[in-house]
Write a structure and sequence with these properties.
The complex is a heterodimer. Chain A is 25% helix and 33% strand. Chain A is α+β, with helices and mostly antiparallel strands. In chain A, β16 and β17 form a beta hairpin. By secondary structure, chain B is mostly helical. Chain B folds into two domains: 43 residues, no CATH class; 198 residues, MetI-like fold. The radius of gyration of chain B is 26 Å and the shape is flat. The two termini of chain B are 40 Å apart. The chains are: A alpha+beta, B mainly alpha. Chains A and B meet through β6 and α2 of A and α9 and α10 of B.
Chain lengths: 361, 320
Amino acid sequence: MSSIHLQNLVKKFGEFTALKTMDLVIEDGEFMALLGPSGCGKSTTMNMIAGIEEPTSGRILFGDRDMAGVPMGGRGVGFVFQNYAIFTHMTVRQNLAYGLRMRGLAKSEIERKVSAIAELLQLSPLLDRKADRLSVNILQRVAIGRSAIMEPAIFLLDEPLSNVDAAFRAVMRTELKHLQRQFRQTMVYVTHDQLEAMTMADRIAVMDHGVLQQVGTPLEVYNHPANVFVARFIGAPGMNLLKGRPAERDRGLVIDLGRLGATQPLPPALAASLRNHGREVLYGFRPEQTLLSAEGRGLRMPVDFVERIGARTIVHLGRDETAVKAVFENDVKLGEAVTVSPAEASVRIFDAATGTAIRAE
Amino acid sequence: MNATAIMKHRDAAVSDGENTAAGVTDAEAARLGFRLTLPAQILVLFISAFPLLMQLYISLTDWSPLSGIGWWSAWELWNNFANYTDLAADGRFWSALGRTAIVMLVCVPAEFLLGLALATLFMDEFPGKRFFYSVMLMPMMVVPAVAGYMFFMLFQSGGPVNDLLSSLTGFPVTVAWLSDPTLALVAVMIADIWQWTPLMFLILLAGLVGVPEDQIKAATLLGANAWQRFTTIVLPKMKTIIVIALAIRVIENFKIFDTLYIMTGGGPGVATETISVYIYKVTTQDLIWGYVAAIALAILVVLSVVAVLAMKRMAQGREA
């Protein structure tokens, strides 16, 4: 087992900067998800940890061991590729034994370890099957087994579920989490799917455009996004953000949203940190923590579009600058004006210019 | 009824195992299919089987164009398999066959190893790669007869090869390459390797490009070194294409003629006389065509065995 320290890590491909000064500590035995849209630098980060790519500058430490100059075969990391990269010309057994065979272990020892790992991953009946005609979930287990048999301190998984259909993905998520509990290794998991990150990871590192945006537990990232990007990216749909200015009223500090009117007073702690702010802010609240009602205090907005996705209905309100989404069970009519009132505790404020969150004092 | 409809009926018949609504059974459909492809089959049969049968027929006689009768009347010159018994006892034939085998056993592995090494080299990026790629393919495009003249010039005792050797060793080298029985064979093999390594290179490069990069990466991450990756991932993945490349070159090299004939004419003496050269000489100089047919048929059998073995290997490769 081993912790991973990324220090001032930078990766440039010619003129293009794939990763800008990344600092991250992944704890021993932790399941860390690197989450972000494509091109955010998450795979580059993973490849550098594995040694597939060399950092332009900065350091990678496993525990206190500097990995500079250690070739990818010598780092003791297990790597599960997006498409698994199973050796299709070999049997399952040969796939599992590959690493040990390359290391020159005794036949009997290899035999013993292969049986053990096959037992653990329920691959025993499939050991002598050719690996080119296996289903995706078995391929995944072979890929994991092939790395796990080397007993790596660190396990890296590169979007292992992106080739799987949605229904099956849920099964695989559970299976993966289960496997991690069994192996208890440090796991780094690259994904663009927040659901995967939220359900499996101990902590999530949200990345965008080569910059680490926020590191935290799934709930931290969801409840207290560090900036506008994280607020929008996490959650389905993402956080509603409305532009406005703090304004002092009799009932307390509110955000004046211009045409939409003023919000409800902010909670005192948040109001305190915002009182001397002065500049434009973004008023954020989660669609799933928003109440819609026919009457009452709040923001009056017309219903623009209704998205019914079975278990819940997403109501789109307003347009363009003032568009807002809300998750709602009851039926609403298009064009009807309703009152939107965010739950007080769910309100988050961001600086409009920098996009960073303004936290309650 | 068009072909698509028949196919549909056929599929339906296969799935039901019984008569379909249209009343076409599996057997009926197959018969109809046979009738429809019959003209094409007859044509193919005529093109491939007729010359073969004609050859077989003539090989059993003493017929030659000088016999004064048409080939179809060759039965009048029936010789009780004398051509085949002669062949078995023909020392010149057997030594030509042996020589051909030696040339093949040297040239094809050399072309394969050189081609593979070059193809591996071309998997990496290096300056001028596109230029060298074109240069690499050039020998293959040279007309073999021209290549023959080229090497004929190069290997003259006062030619560039000796000049080069002289300047490298510091002694005046005046080896008579094409007049020395052993060296003539060496020169001929060098010419063949020069001309046909590019084909090997091209086929093997296509094979190398097809090896999945992520599997190689996975092997590296599992601790395999470059040689282990090559032997456990690259070579097994290229098995089929290697068999194809070798089969093409074995068959082609067995028929080696044009370059060689221009360089040495099979000489000095019979030192570079391969099967093709021997057949050519017997055909044009001795004019005993019945015997030529017997030799050619014997060679065809040998090459067919090679081809069948290669194809069997390929089928296994596909299953693997």
